[in-house]
């Protein structure tokens, strides 16, 4: 059908994934809400999905091309609702680790007065397990922990005005990069970010080269190099807290990344 062909990720300019093109991180985001169904982004019939888990995306998980790859690798073919959401209380910061996919990813930071249009992915049980695994949640030393952000501390308003009681988000276990004055820095886009990091650190240039292209090429799939770069962030005192750690700590009632530790706190 012509209508369906017009909704392909390729036709919408959303097919490229940062995993294949690191300097495009976080990748293309949709113009509005939609249902990611294979290589198509279709209209949604509703914005709230009570039988699924709402997870806020602040980086490449809002890129349909990236999300499609993650699901396909695990054999998941069920559609993923992606809902554009007005979020108050969160800014997009910079994770204090170098990804093996060749980029420095985004991470949420607390910002009580900030308002940002982001995406909620409504995930079923299998999809949630895939995204958790991709963020390192099940691992003792994984990069992220999944935390429940309750309203009204963070407010989530959908396109039709519906306000949610909260949503999950992935909080970086290592912290986030700061702006030089101690406050979390915003994520300016991959090329600008890597350029600034390389200009500011001789040790990073020694590890990753002098250009964003060299950085991405060297970092990709080299876990030792990525871990070394991550340690440089800490050793050069470039790291601060995101402000969202308390939401993780209140939920760690079981072993990290398992069972009851991932449930919203009782109120």
Describe it.
With 267 residues, this protein is an alpha+beta fold. The chain has one domain: Hypothetical upf0131 protein ytfp, CATH 3.10.490.10. Helix content is 27%, strand content 26%. The protein has helices spanning 2-6, 9-12, 64-73, 125-134, 190-200, 202-208, 212-219, 223-235, 245-249; strands at residues 34-37, 40-42, 53-57, 80-94, 106-123, 144-150, 155-158, 163-164, 166-172, 176-177, 239-240. The strands form 3 sheets. Strands 1, 2, 3, 4, 5, 7 and 8 form a 7-stranded antiparallel β-sheet that branches. Helix 6 runs antiparallel to helix 8 (223-235). The chain is globular, with a radius of gyration of 18 Å. The relative contact order is 0.16. Residues 252-267 have low confidence and may be disordered.
CATH homologous superfamily - what is it? Gamma-glutamyl cyclotransferase-like
What would CATH call the architecture?
Roll
**Overall geometric form:** globular
- How many alpha or pi helices? 9
Largest sheet: 7 strands, antiparallel
Give me the count of strands: 11
Approximate strand percentage? 25-35%
Order of helices and strands: HHEEEHEEHEEEEEHHHHEH
Strand pairing plus helix content: what structural class? alpha+beta
- For this structure, what is the CATH class? Alpha Beta
Low-confidence stretches: 252-267
The total tally of domains equals: 1
Helix-residue proportion: 25-40%
Q: What is the CA-atom radius of gyration, in angstroms? A: 18 Å
List the defining traits of the structure above.
seven-stranded antiparallel beta sheet; disordered C terminus; alpha+beta; globular; 11 strands; Hypothetical upf0131 protein ytfp; 9 helices; 267 residues
């Amino acid at each position: 059908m012509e209508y369906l062909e017009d909704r392909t990720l390729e036709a919408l300019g959303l097919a490229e994934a940062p995993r294949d093109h690191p300097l495009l991180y976080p990748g293309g985001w949709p113009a509005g809400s939609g249902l990611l169904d294979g290589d198509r982004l279709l209209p949604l019939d509703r914005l709230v999905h009570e039988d699924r888990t709402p997870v806020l995306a602040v980086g490449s998980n809002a890129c349909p091309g990236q999300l499609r790859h993650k699901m396909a690798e695990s054999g998941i073919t069920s559609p993923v609702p992606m809902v554009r959401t007005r979020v108050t209380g969160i800014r997009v910061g910079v994770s204090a680790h170098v990804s093996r996919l060749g980029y420095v990813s985004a991470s949420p930071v607390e910002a009580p007065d900030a308002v940002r249009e982001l995406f909620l992915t409504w995930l079923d049980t299998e999809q949630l397990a895939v995204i958790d695994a991709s963020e390192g949640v099940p691992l003792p030393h994984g990069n992220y922990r999944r935390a429940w952000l309750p309203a009204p501390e963070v407010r989530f308003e959908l396109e039709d005005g519906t306000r949610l009681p909260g949503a999950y988000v992935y909080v970086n276990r290592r912290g986030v990069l700061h702006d030089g004055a101690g406050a979390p820095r915003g994520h300016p886009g991959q090329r600008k970010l890597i350029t600034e990091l390389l200009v500011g650190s001789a040790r990073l240039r020694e590890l990753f080269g002098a250009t964003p292209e060299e950085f991405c090429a060297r970092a990709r799939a080299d876990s030792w190099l990525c871990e070394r770069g991550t340690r440089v962030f800490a050793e050069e005192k470039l790291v601060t807290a995101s402000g969202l750690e308390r939401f993780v700590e209140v939920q760690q009632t079981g072993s990290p990344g398992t069972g009851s530790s991932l449930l919203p706190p009782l109120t």
